[in-house]
Amino acid sequence: MSARLVGDVAIWLDTPAALGLTPAERLVLMIIAERANEQSRRMWRYRSDESTLHDLLARRVGVSSGQLTRILGRLSRRGLEVRVPLKYDRRGRPVYGRRGHACDFQLPELPTTVTLPPRANPCGQPGPDVPGGSR
To answer: Which InterPro entries match (predicted)?
Structure first.
């Protein structure tokens, strides 16, 4: 268990980069952080676990296996790929799990956002996005 990673995720969830994450997506990140190794950021499976990590995540989030797969896909589209690829197919697409090989999970690097200053009009006149500009 990595309290530091859980703390990092909790702080990151308060940033603008986490806006729009659903409660289920947030919970998946927290559960992975709670079970992740601090150095490798990979989720651990304990000997006492009676199910795969995918089933454990689904049970703890309170969703079905298919719903968890959709949640993982949404996280991936946001740039938060938590699944560890087993291999890549002929087209170069990642394969995350297959019969006989369960999917592994890792906590990704959490992205930050940058707020850019308002853009000025090239003619030197204030534009609509600059205070004092026309609307």
So the answer is: WH-like_DNA-bd_sf (IPR036388), WH_DNA-bd_sf (IPR036390)
